[in-house]
Amino acid sequence: MKLDLSPDWKSHLKEEFKKTYFKELLDFIALEYQNSICYPPLDSIFAAFEHCSFDQCKVVIIGQDPYHGPNQANGLCFSVAEGTSHPPSLINIFKELASDVDKTYPLSGNLEHWAKQGVLLLNATLTVRESKAGSHQKMGWETFTDQVIKTISKDKSDVVFMLWGGYAKEKVKLIDTKKHHVLVSGHPSPLSANRGYWFGNKHFSRCNEILTSLQLDPIYW
Asked: Any bridge partners for residue 199, and if so which?
């Protein structure tokens, strides 16, 4: 399997790639993609790292699992392939975005343009079998993505981490909150959002306020 990561990611994570668990993980994924329908497409598994280099990364959004339906997952958390209907969580993300920054609800659910501006859209688990949510959890992906978060925390400063929902909030223990900025909210899923834990968090404008205060370019959401 080709590791489609920018050279700076490869440099920072090179020791991780040598570890036994990672080699076993890649062997497992290769067999899964050979024997079952899995998502995202094989060449998009590491898309989050391809579109957002380590040096460019200034915002991190953490998801849990890729979408497990046809033509949805494209390797970026919460994002869907061009022309795909928006899943419920993404609908609520866009509703909050439109309200927060006075933006028209986006037509495309493809978030590559966020990634290319320095937003790492990181799922904790990078692959999934079709129609089986969580099917590739606890096979090694979480060990790898936790190390990604730790590496960002250790080797960068003033990154904005946007943690949505209980699962993402647990990742705060991997982040040095003295040198980074953490925004916490309920999950954008309908269950959480309809209970009042998502709408009104203003994470998009708050993130840009932080970036502007650091004399960094805000994200054009």
From this structure: none
In what helix (H) or strand (E) does residue 123 lie, and over which residues does it extend?
strand 119-123
CB 208 within 8 A of CB 218: yes
Q: Are 58 and 211 in contact (CB under 8 A)?
A: yes
* pTM: predicted TM-score of the whole model, two decimal places: 0.96
pLDDT tens digits, one per residue of 100-116: 999 999 999 999 999 99
How far is Cα 99 from Cα 78, in angstroms, rounded to an integer? Answer: 18
Active site residue 65: yes
Pairing relationship of beta strands 38-39 and 128-129 according to DSSP bridges: antiparallel
Find the catalytic residue in 4, 8, 55, 65: 65
Tell me, which fold does domain 7-214 have in CATH?
A: Uracil-DNA Glycosylase, subunit E (3.40.470)
Enumerate the domain spans of the chain: 7-214
Query: Tell me, what DSSP letter sits at residue 52?
Result: S
